[in-house]
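[recover] target loaded
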């Protein structure tokens, strides 16, 4: 469940960040001839700031898509959104009391109100920050998923995966439906005398006579030389 929610969240985040980067790029091109204010923190032009945020969004989007570790994906999203939220708070403290004015070019480009753009942007980053932090905490607190044990049916050679809690239980083989006892398997191997194909079987099956799973001829399972 946790893995599925994490995958859904990172996929949605990638899509949202792609949309954000596209929106900022379009706004920069549309407002290329306009005089824009500088941000109150680094004194950068808003066009430069938008390119930086848009580039960061693309980088995090790629990480959310291509990184293998779900934990690294969540850490990357959390780091990116935390930086943007801290920037917004410090920018307000430094004199940018109304950030709506800094998003005016975006609002004008897409014919939206500056208040709406400001609210949607804040909601986006707050949501990504809280969700990534919550999923990271869940990932850290969750017990690791049990690795299933595997064995081989002594009758048909079929592979069977089972939980460690079922070790020692007798069940019908899901392949040939004959009764077997679930045991840890070291997977011994031998070659069929008739067809020369390889056969895998658990150590406890040594001495049993079975039909070869390949040629169906009766053979006796022997310990490999």
């Amino acid at each position: 469940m946790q893995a599925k929610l994490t995958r859904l969240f990172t996929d949605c985040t990638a899509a949202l960040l792609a949309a954000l980067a596209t929106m900022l790029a379009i706004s920069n091109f549309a407002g290329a001839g306009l005089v824009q204010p500088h941000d109150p923190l680094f004194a950068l032009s808003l066009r430069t700031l938008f390119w930086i945020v848009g580039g960061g969004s693309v980088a995090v989007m790629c990480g959310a898509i291509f990184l293998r570790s779900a934990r690294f994906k969540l850490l990357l999203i959390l780091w990116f959104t935390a930086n943007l939220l801290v920037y917004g708070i410090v920018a307000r403290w430094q004199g940018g009391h109304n950030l709506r004015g800094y998003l005016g070019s975006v609002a004008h480009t897409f014919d939206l109100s500056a208040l709406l753009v400001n609210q949607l942007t804040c909601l986006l980053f707050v949501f990504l920050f809280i969700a990534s932090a919550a999923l990271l905490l869940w990932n850290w607190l969750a017990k690791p998923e049990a690795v299933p044990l595997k064995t081989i049916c002594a009758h048909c050679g079929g592979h069977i995966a089972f939980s460690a809690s079922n070790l020692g239980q007798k069940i019908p083989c899901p392949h040939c439906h004959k009764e077997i006892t679930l045991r840890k398997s070291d997977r011994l191997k031998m070659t069929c005398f008739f067809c020369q194909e390889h056969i895998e079987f658990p150590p406890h099956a040594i001495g049993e006579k079975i039909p070869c799973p390949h040629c169906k001829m009766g053979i006796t399972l022997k310990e490999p030389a």
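[recover] notes: Residues 149-220 form one domain.
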